[in-house]
Design brief:
The structure holds two protein chains of two kinds. Chain A contains ten helices and no strands. By secondary structure, chain A is mainly alpha-helical. The longest helix of chain A is centred in the middle third of the chain and has 34 residues. Chain B is built from eleven helices and 13 strands. The longest helix of chain B is centred in the middle third of the chain and has 16 residues. Chain B is elongated and about 80 Å long. Classes of the chains: A mainly alpha, B alpha/beta.
């Protein structure tokens, strides 16, 4: 600092491009460009749509051929569960990739240099991802639901049941995806985060199956009622999957909403304080 | 103008950056020099608010980086060429950055043209060579046409044509009145481009000086001579109080002498000289001397510093990569 330094130039550069104040809308446009310009988006969502349609039609055709009701007093909508279960794996994968792939490639440094507000980046990612997944899953679930009700004879579903099997299914998957996005933010590693999400999805059910001891029956019943696949079944059902206190009707959507908000809050806190 | 004040970064007990204070002024290229592991990249990441400093502040035109809503309009940075998503095309990689800062889309085409990537704009950046990746990174830095530009080791891995291109680009950008901050571990590269020099070693500031002053102060000058009567030359020099050091190829190096004086001495004693020339030690050597105590990763078994000092002649462009 003691050495003499050249005096600063008399002028500094002024760009002809006007500065217009950037806000969340610009971050949304940016995230939309990102998500639509990656082949992994097309692959995961494409596979999801094919699985939901294929499994949905397949199950309906098999049951229709056997001409039996899917379940006592339940409409054919309940068969949408199988497609939803498989679709959730794709949505979890995309949710994780939406942010973890930025860490994997180093793009995150460029992203956060361009938009230093961590909250704006995370919110924009969450909104774009949620909107995209919600739209596609709701549309696909609707096609499957209409086909299943048309193919399989059974009680006519109520309006509430229709809504849960379409909009409800879309909300549930999109919110599950948001949890994955938050886990991807926390873990920063695609494979690790996807493994965690699939474990969260399947382990409670598998563990509960082998809880034979009487003293564990409380835990077992809780796991059976609240495991993610059980919640998906509950979305279509009017009675709890296991026990009397499990979630029914719209409960799974509210549960996932709380989980997603909590996970995103945690992801934001970590993203905001951690070195990139 | 970038102002760095008391910047410190500690990882556990290890101090990567130690109370660093300096200013980067507009209208010139400021070189940021230090051996590998000196803390250059950590400092630059803190300047961009990617890493949180343990203490100290960085201000960009008087503001904190996180308070900038559209930072690309003020400061563009090339951190490393791979900080892009390889599955996305060059055009889309730049487009999403432009959108987040409300930069008009036509600017994407302009910067791609500027760095010469128009032909591969729609190709996935995954398949780009190191040089193309570097050009894409520079395009992203120039996207907002910012007043301040930061380049972290921009010539790494580039071919001579690419190095030449980056040098000229930086000079042209500085001439427009922009603030250019460029890091390197190669003194020779800095000597060709930088107007001002900030040298760090083990996270500490070692020098903050103009390039001209650095050259003035740090290059050792000596006289090199060759003669078929080497032993007699040595005796004569010794008798007149000069110390001649053996250099390779039968040459002698004499410190603190002028060619005039040695030429006269030779004539007086009837000595035959095959070479008599004035030499300056390279800046690379001066830089290594300065950072000798502050090199993070020493190459074991080779006395690189002593060896370099004893080596004759200027070593411009010599790349002494350590460890």
């Amino acid at each position: 600092m003691t050495a003499p330094t050249p005096s600063p130039a008399p002028h500094s550069y002024v760009s002809p491009i006007p500065v217009r104040r950037a806000h969340l809308g610009d971050a949304l446009a940016s995230e939309w460009t990102k998500i639509r310009s990656l082949r992994s988006t097309m692959w995961t969502l494409g596979v999801m749509v094919l699985l939901m349609l294929g499994v949905g039609f397949g199950v309906a055709l098999i049951v229709a051929a056997a001409s039996e009701y899917p379940a006592e007093n339940e409409s054919a909508l309940g068969m949408g569960f199988f497609g939803l279960l498989l679709g959730s794996i794709c949505v979890m994968t995309l949710g994780v990739l939406t942010i973890a792939s930025e860490y994997g490639t180093g793009m995150i440094r460029t992203t956060l240099t361009a938009c230093p507000s961590r909250g704006r980046v995370l919110l924009a990612k969450a909104i774009v991802f949620f909107a995209l997944v919600f739209t596609i899953t709701t549309l696909t679930a609707t096609v499957v639901a209409v086909a299943q009700v048309a193919l399989v004879s059974g009680p006519e579903p109520t309006v509430d049941q229709w809504l849960r099997a379409t909009v409800g299914a879309g909300l549930f998957l999109a919110l599950t995806g948001l949890v994955s996005l938050a886990v991807g933010t926390l873990i920063r590693h695609s494979a690790g985060a996807i493994t965690i999400m699939i474990g969260v999805m399947l382990m409670p059910l598998v563990a509960a199956m082998f809880m034979m001891a009487e003293s564990l029956s409380g835990v077992r019943d809780w796991l059976l009622a609240y495991a993610l696949p059980s919640q998906m079944i509950a979305l279509y059902s009017s009675v709890p999957v296991e026990g009397a206190s499990g979630p029914t009707g719209w409960d799974p959507v509210w549960i996932m909403l709380v989980l997603a908000l909590g996970a995103l809050g945690g992801a934001f806190a970590v993203l905001n304080s951690r070195d990139v | 103008m970038i102002e760095v004040e008391g910047l410190t970064k500690r990882y556990g007990t290890k101090t990567a950056v130690d109370h660093l204070s300096f200013r980067v002024r507009p209208g010139m290229i400021t070189g940021f020099l230090g051996p590998n592991g000196a803390g250059k990249s950590t400092t630059m990441r803190m300047m961009l608010d990617l890493d949180n400093p343990t203490s100290g502040t960085v201000r960009i035109d008087g503001r904190h980086y996180r308070d900038l809503d559209e930072p690309l309009k003020y400061i563009g940075a090339l951190l490393d060429a791979k900080a892009m998503h390889g599955g996305r095309s060059a055009y889309n990689n730049l487009l999403c950055l432009a959108q987040s800062n409300r930069i008009p889309e036509r600017r994407v085409g302009e910067v791609l043209e500027l760095v010469g990537l128009t032909a591969v704009a729609r190709k996935k950046s995954k398949g780009f060579s190191l040089g193309m990746g570097q050009r894409l990174g520079i395009a992203s830095a120039l996207l907002g046409d910012p007043e301040i530009l930061m380049f972290d080791e921009p010539v790494n891995g580039l071919d001579p044509e690419g190095i030449h291109w980056i040098r000229n680009l930086m000079k042209a950008l500085a001439a427009e009145g922009r603030t250019i901050f460029v890091s390197s571990h190669l003194m020779s590269e800095m000597a060709l481009t930088a107007d001002h020099l900030i040298v760090i070693g083990q996270g500490k500031l070692l020098a903050d000086t103009s390039m001209a002053d650095f050259i003035q102060q740090n290059s050792r000058s000596y006289v090199r001579l060759r003669s078929p009567q080497r032993e007699r030359v040595r005796d004569v020099l010794h008798a007149h109080g000069f110390t001649a050091v053996e250099a390779g190829g039968g040459a002698l190096e004499v410190d603190g002498a002028t060619t005039e004086r040695l030429g006269e001495l030779a004539a007086e004693n009837g000595l035959v000289l095959h070479e008599l020339s004035s030499q300056r030690a390279s800046l690379e050597e001066a830089f290594m001397r300065m950072t000798a105590g502050a090199v993070e990763y020493h190459a074991h078994g080779t006395d690189i510093h002593g060896g370099a000092l004893a080596a004759p002649g200027p070593r411009w462009g010599a790349t002494s990569e350590e460890a």
